[in-house]
Design goal:
It contains nine helices and seven strands. It has a seven-stranded mixed beta sheet, sandwiched between helices. It is globular. It is α/β, with parallel strands linked by helices and about 230 residues long. α7 runs antiparallel to α8. The relative contact order is 0.15. Helices cover about 45% and strands about 20% of the residues. It has a domain of about 160 residues: Rossmann fold (3-Layer(aba) Sandwich). The chain starts with 6 loop residues before the first helix and ends with a strand.
Length: about 230
């Protein structure tokens, strides 16, 4: 395993990677998760529990998967992503903005809800990202963050490690970009442990924070209410 990029080198690497894999990103998501990601996104949106018509940001929106689920749930969605390639490949009628989730063009308390799917490990730093989420959410607003994880059960964890570390890069290389799909499993190392993630939500200004393992723990859903 090569050393993971840090600082601005990470920002440049992530930008280039997502531009490159955008055309087949949705296909790989479906194939590599056996379609489980569809249910995970629906659960993420359900966890918001906001009234119909609520304004919800989808940060690191990619091709708009979560935007489409938000609209189906009756919300007004706006997607934000740094990657021009991802936005060009988007399949959603929601407004899309090219921008950085660490510096959003949104006034303080300007939205009711916020979601983010599989992007926490790709940000330059989590603390400023969570602080920005807290800034743009109104008091009582809801946040739901969907991310990969690993099972706690040792046997399941070993099997998941083999699949994520060996099979994902192989399939990703056949259908898209091998280097990108080698990096994505390795990038889990950027994520703090579950208990620390919950502490970070509290420090950023969120109450009722909760971490829910999904599908034996291969994914996780972090939720919180703006204090």
């Amino acid at each position: 395993m090569s050393p993971l990029p840090q600082g601005q080198a990470k920002v440049r690497a992530v930008d280039a990677m997502f531009d490159a894999i955008a055309p087949r990103y949705d296909l790989l998501n479906r194939v590599l998760t056996f379609g489980l990601d569809i249910g995970w996104r629906r659960r993420t949106v359900r966890s918001l529990g906001l009234p119909a018509g609520a304004r919800v940001l989808d940060l690191a929106c990619g091709t708009g998967d979560l935007c489409r689920v938000l609209v189906a749930a009756g919300y007004r969605a706006v997607g934000v992503d740094r990657s021009a390639g991802m936005l060009a490949a988007a399949r959603t009628g929601s407004p899309l903005v090219r921008g950085d989730a660490l510096g959003l063009p949104v006034p303080d308390g300007g939205v009711d809800g916020l979601v983010c799917g599989f992007a926490l490990r790709n940000f330059l730093s989590l603390e400023p990202f969570l602080a920005e989420c807290a800034r743009v959410l109104r008091p009582g607003g809801r946040m739901a963050l969907l991310e990969v994880s690993a099972p706690e059960n040792p046997l399941l964890r070993a099997g998941h490690g083999f699949y994520f570390g060996r099979v994902v890069p192989l399939v990703g290389g056949l259908l898209s970009d091998r280097d990108a799909y080698r990096y994505l499993p390795e990038s889990v190392a950027y994520l703090p442990p579950g208990p620390r993630l919950l502490e970070m939500l509290d420090e950023a200004g969120f109450d009722a924070s909760r971490r829910q393992p999904l599908t034996t723990g291969i994914a996780q859903l972090l939720t919180g209410t703006r204090r």
